[in-house]
């Protein structure tokens, strides 16, 4: 039997357990994306709390395009020293840390928005109302290079790997989505064409970080919209990336720019899942199928709560790792509790009130 607390390895990254901290935008960085003491403290709590590997909140790769306020940046070398301090601290506490990088596109909540926002096509974002500028092929080449330069900094700063954010309605996710991508060139049409920029980003990153540095991608299981990315297409994209040499797929889901997805609770951070264990791990079906069809690690995120549920999934499917977001916000030391034998349900009830609190803190910790 496989064990949630056994040591494994992905390339040259050794993992002390099968738990990842899922990426969450903390909103605590400076206006231009630099670290703060509050942000450093959050990662220190996590590293001390027993998690095997941390996915950071997303970091923007282009100085002139920031999707959200208070998010981390990785667009130039001014970040190297502070991130080296961060990675050294995490490693000293026995954990790994992987930086998630992103270009946001029209899925922006920055007020006012960045002056120029690119998209696969100039389709208005249903949630934000932003109409992006359709990317030229020159723009695409430039952005691909920006991802590569960002990943080089990630490696130089001592991170254990890099994750490409291609989910939840951000730019790379929009390229995969035929609603937002109506291009008629080699970047539009078939799923192979729509995935072309994602593949090019991966290949650029691989060229600059080398063969042994782990590269992950976060991708929707499906968009849960009538005209969006389907489960079958998502698996096809994952197979393309596996063939190219990517090291792991994190499965999420839901195009958050779609109003019906938000209204119907089909996004990545669903509520009311604490009602029943049957509501947990809600991207399990797709991840199970994906893990049967590819031979690289699949990381399941979204609604992972009870340790016994994850143990059952681990030993009945080919899914190898589990990412937790909101439970780790509520209890940064949750994994240490479980490792000590205290395997009760996490305190988190998936109310999503943490998203309304400064620093993404649990509502149970707020002063009355």
TrEMBL record:
Checking Pfam families in the record gives: Oxidored_FMN (PF00724)
Q: Which UniProt keywords apply?
A: Flavoprotein, Oxidoreductase
The question of whether Amino-acid biosynthesis is a record keyword is answered with: no
* CDD domains xrefs: OYE_like_FMN_family
Outline the extent of the NADH:flavin oxidoreductase/NADH oxidase N-terminal domain: 4-341
In Swiss-Prot or TrEMBL terms, this protein is called: Oxidoreductase
What is the organism field in this record? Clostridium zeae
Identify the taxonomic lineage of the organism of origin: Bacteria, Bacillati, Bacillota, Clostridia, Eubacteriales
């Amino acid at each position: 039997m496989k064990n949630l607390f056994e040591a494994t390895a992905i390339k040259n990254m050794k993992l002390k357990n099968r738990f990842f901290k899922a990426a969450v935008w903390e909103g605590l960085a400076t206006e231009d994306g630099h670290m703060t003491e509050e942000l450093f403290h959050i990662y220190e709590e996590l590293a001390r709390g027993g998690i095997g590997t941390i996915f950071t909140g997303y970091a923007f790769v282009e100085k002139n395009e920031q999707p959200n306020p208070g998010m981390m940046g990785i667009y130039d070398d001014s970040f190297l020293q502070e991130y080296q301090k961060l990675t050294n601290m995490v490693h000293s506490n026995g954990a790994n840390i992987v930086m998630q990088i992103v270009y946001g596109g029209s899925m922006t909540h920055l007020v006012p928005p960045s002056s120029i926002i690119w998209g696969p096509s100039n389709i208005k974002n249903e949630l934000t109302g932003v109409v992006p500028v359709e990317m030229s092929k020159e723009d695409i080449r430039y952005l691909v290079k920006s991802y590569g330069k960002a990943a080089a900094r990630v490696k130089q700063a001592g991170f254990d790997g890099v994750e490409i954010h291609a989910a939840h309605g951000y730019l790379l996710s929009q390229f995969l989505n035929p609603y937002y991508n109506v291009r008629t060139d080699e970047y539009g049409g078939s799923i192979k064409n729509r995935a072309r920029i994602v593949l090019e980003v991966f290949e650029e990153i691989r060229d600059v970080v080398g063969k042994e540095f782990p590269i992950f991608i976060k991708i929707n299981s499906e968009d849960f919209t009538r005209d969006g990315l389907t489960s079958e297409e998502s698996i096809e994209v994952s197979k393309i990336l596996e063939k190219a040499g990517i090291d792991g797929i994190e499965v999420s889901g839901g195009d958050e720019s779609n109003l019906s997805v938000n209204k119907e609770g089909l996004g990545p951070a669903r509520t009311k899942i604490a009602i029943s264990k049957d509501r947990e791990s809600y991207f399990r079906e797709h991840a199970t199928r994906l893990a049967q069809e590819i031979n690289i690690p699949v990381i399941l995120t979204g609604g992972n709560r009870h340790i016994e549920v994850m143990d059952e999934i681990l030993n009945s499917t080919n899914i190898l790792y589990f990412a937790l977001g909101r439970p780790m916000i509520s209890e940064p030391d949750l994994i240490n509790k479980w490792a000590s034998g205290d395997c009760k349900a996490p305190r988190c009830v998936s109310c999503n009130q943490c998203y309304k609190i400064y620093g993404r803190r649990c509502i149970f910790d707020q002063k009355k």
